[in-house]
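3-hydroxyacyl-[acyl-carrier-protein] dehydratase FabA structure dump, as promised
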Amino acid sequence: MEQRQSSYTYEEILTCSRGEMFGPGNPQLPLPPMLMLDRITHISEEGGEHNKGMIRAEYDINPERWFFDCHFAGDPVMPGCLGLDALWQMTGFYLGWLGLEGKGRAISVGEIKFSGMITPDIKTVTYGVDFKRVMKGRLNLSIGDGWVKADDNVVFVAKDLRVGAFKDS
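structure tokens r here:
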């Protein structure tokens, strides 16, 4: 069995953004500034809340991040949709990491509950997705539950994140 990496640096993540990591037509991450991960600290087919795999990542915050200037003037906060996108990015990365083929696309999320904000004074955002199911076939699909922490405080949770990897027909 091939040994896969269990963590990735920013430079390694960028190879995924450029489509080099998993090959053409397979899952890839967006390029900056839409890339919402600075490093993947752990990825595994085992563990997590449902014992079906997990991924953890981090994103460094500083007041110069692009979204603080426009969301909102005089009241800067990271848009919640960017945290959700980070969870989808990680869920799609997991499909590629498993060796599943197809272009990754976010499909849906079942439920989101916000309980805090990410402001310019936060140092690190930590993300986690615990996988519930991975379906392999004509459509490769991963389903998981995720959370977002700002300096170790949970600011939102998302249930039933779904990302598919669609093969060209």
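The chain has one domain: 10-166.
lmk if u need the other ones
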